[in-house]
Amino acid sequence: MSELHFPWLELAILLPLLGAGVVGRMESPERARNWSLAVLFISLLGTLGAWFDFVSLQTELAHDRWDGLSWLTGRSVLAMDQFSAPMLALVSLLGLLTVLGTLKTKIKRVSFGGILLNQALGLAIFSAHEPWLLIGLLSLSVLTPLFELVQRGKPTGVYLTHLGAFVLFLGAGWWLVSRNPEGAWWHYCGGVLLVVAVLIRSGVAPLHCWMTDLFEHAPFGSSILFVTPMAGAYAAVRLVVPEAPDWSLKLLVWAPMLTSLYAAGMALVQQELRRFFVYLFLSHASLVLVGLETATTEALAGGLSVWFATSLSLTGFGLTLRSVESRLGRISLADYHGLFEHMPNLAILCLVTGLASVGFPGTIGFVATELLVDGVIHRYPWTGVAIVLAAALNGIAVLKVYFRLFTGPRHSTSICLQARPAERIAVLLLVVLMIGGGLYPQPFLESRFQAAEHLLGERSGSQSQPMHHEVPDGEAEVLERTGQEDSQRELKREFQREVDTLKPEQILSAEGFETKWSPSGGSDKGEGGPRQRDALDDH
Amino acid sequence: MELTGIFNLMVVLVVGGPALLLLGLGLPPLLGFKLSERFAASCSRAVILIGLAALVGIAILFWSSGASHALVFKGSDWVALEEVHFHFRLELIFDWLSIPFAILSFLLCGLIAAFAANYMHREPGYQRFFFLFAMFLLGINTAILAGSIETLFLGWELVGLSSALLVAFFQERVAPVENGLRVWSVYRIADAAFLVGAALLHHLTGEGEFARLAGTEGWPHAAISLPEGQAFLIGLLMIVAAAGKSALVPFSGWLPRAMEGPTPSSAIFYGALSIHLGTYLLLRLSPLLDRVPALSWIVLGLGVATVLVASVAGRVQSDVKSALAFASLTQVGLISVEIGLGLRYLPLLHMIGHACLRTLQLLRAPTLLRDYQLLENALGRHVSNRRNPWSFWLSASSQLRLYRWGLERAYLDAGLERWLVEPLLAIFRWCDRAERKWTDWLSGRPSRESDELPPTDELLKELR
What we know:
Strand order of the largest sheet of chain A: 1-2-3
Largest interface: A-B, 80 and 65 residues
Shape of chain A: globular
Strand order of the largest sheet of chain B: 1-4
Order of helices and strands of chain B: HHEEEEHHHHHHHHHHHHHHHHH
Structural class of chain A: mainly alpha
Number of helices of chain A: 25
Helix content of chain A: over 70%
Strand content of chain A: under 5%
Largest sheet of chain B: 2 strands, antiparallel
Largest sheet of chain A: 3 strands, mixed
Order of helices and strands of chain A: EHHEHEHHHHHHHHHHHHHHHHHHHHHH
Number of helices of chain B: 19
Helix content of chain B: over 70%
Oligomer: heterodimer
Shape of chain B: globular
Structural class of chain B: mainly alpha
Number of strands of chain A: 3
């Protein structure tokens, strides 16, 4: 593991953590807001510094210099890789912009200490490389929204039931997986529990109701911050994808695929703004899981790209809707509100961010969705069709909501409803990133592609069976033909790894090579069987 | 400068100009600046003039090169992931099909820009109109000249969004907005069918090149080598996409609704160009139709059905724009029939001629009564209103039924709504109720604050 030039990660995480303690004691809400902004800004600089430092190192995994936590625990518990480097900056940015976009008249009701604590936890989650640390942080992170619900005297039954089960299943699942050998019954049970935990945290139907309930009762801003980084998907990447057998990944493709369609349909019939937003988010978040669990380089890269694009665009969309809501209160979608004349900027931003979230051409979501569809369709043709249909339905829902909010008989009010500069800057920054990423997507996609390769490398390293081992009969022929290039790439990588572990005399000996790949050669990679050998021959 | 360099420069002017116009008219309002009417109109006219000149230049190049093979512009890779063969680049094709239609689109857009500069003068949404106009200009030209699936999709999406927002242009009234949403919904479904077709092509053949569907030789002589079964499946999806875009049966309902927009946009978008995008796609994919005769029969059937529906519905409309919309639809149906019969140049000529006539008619629509008076003055008598000879063949009750059938627009919208949209929405509403029960049970009390939102004040709504 390489070493960064500075303790960036610790700076980015500890600062909001300390800030939470300081800000939580402040009496003046305005002061608390300004301090929070300063802390979050420095934290963002920390994550950006870590990212650039990581890129300059040209390595696959890096940890902090003068790593205090490793000194305490005896090993590196916080690290960043190609996948998490930009995600950390994203989490930081979303936190900063959420606070920046908070209307001054609302700051009395906002818990800035809670936001900073949530932010510290979020950054720690995306830096955690130790499974138990990750599980602990994920469990802790569910507490901040719970406190908010309790503080506001809102019902907690739905949230507690779902996320209590999440914490329980996650912990028990990993305990069983790590304590039992592969193939054992309890190992299998642990895998199932892990998958269910991920499904709950990601809001996959029918385990999604905690999310709609959270948006119903908790503040809009902190709910957006809690869900948009998609910590559940992160748990899937770190705990499930590297270990899970193919059958469980198939479950993880089908359930999110159906959720994506279901949530898109539900978004169409919602009569209230926040509920609409949750279903739109759920539809997109499910697409991320589809990409992650398809587990081919292209689909995984697509899933990671959609993840980044969705977090950006839906946070922008959510912040715009929150700005509208903070002026008018909870908004019914049963009627037209005619707000265009009062807030033309917010109307434009709402449309741009909403369309970006459904992958409109010219935005970062467009190429991300295309890559995902291209990747998924090879393995699961019907899933590819479902993604396209879900995107079509989401597009209809977004324009419907835009029309409901900003068109219709003109809203009458004597108060100025224009967006404040801070709100505009917050959303505009996201719009610049969305459109910039859409017009020049190459570096973004390349980085996600490399991250996908790295993650799949981890998976094939930890799997005793090769990725393409379990293929249903009906799909076998299709995979033979269309997935051949994928297999070849996997084989090239496998082959390179094998070669790296051989001694020079073994490399020179053709016999040594054959032994490694023959079914009787003692290597369990050989279970890939005739297809791998054929593909290698073809190559 | 070499010919290739000149060609590339002209292509940039054709597509880059509208893109810059879109940026120039879209960015200032986003940053809070207001543009003057003169600036918006002048920029639009300049971009169209330059683009048209460049397009004529390309036409001359194409003709001087023998016109046997299409000129293809391949931009550098916008995205390239070599390891998985994932490429994105702007690819434009200039041939006998695209050049005349693109020239027509520039000419008509120029005409509309000039007309709208006066027609929309002092309209509160003047800037918005020209911004959407720029989006349409970019979208339609990208779609017409598209040489790859991604490029075509890009163009289609821009046309779809600009169309929906233009239909909803008079946004203080609810009806145009609802119609705009209807147009957008049909376009999204058509886009989904197109994308699924493209994805299927990718899945079945391992590559998503447009040439697999449209052939590599010059239009209309290209041939494709897809197996018949695969070609049928993909072709069917492409026909659904084309039917959605060109308002063929059963998607005809959106066209008269689209007439809610300002007259210049109705003229160009629905009467002239946008309505022909579907039939244009069918012409572009004619090698696919040639490969599977059943597809041609389906196109023929759709065309005949559309002609029947539109000609009856058009005869019972009480406003001129709706009547013109159905007249357009009748012609589009006829163009589809021609395509289904295997004709290629005739439908192209038909589209161009029809687009010009309909633009003229739609632009004159606001002064229809005055035109009638002028006509009658010139004739020196009333324009005759003879009874339709077909009516002698039908009983009075049949005439009434036919009248109602036409008035209800062949029940197409109502049918789609009743048999497709409503059942689907009913399922999701049922799921919503089930979710409410579940969360209420878990919470031990009513769990939805959003249920308590005050209902809209109907009186206030009326007063508005």
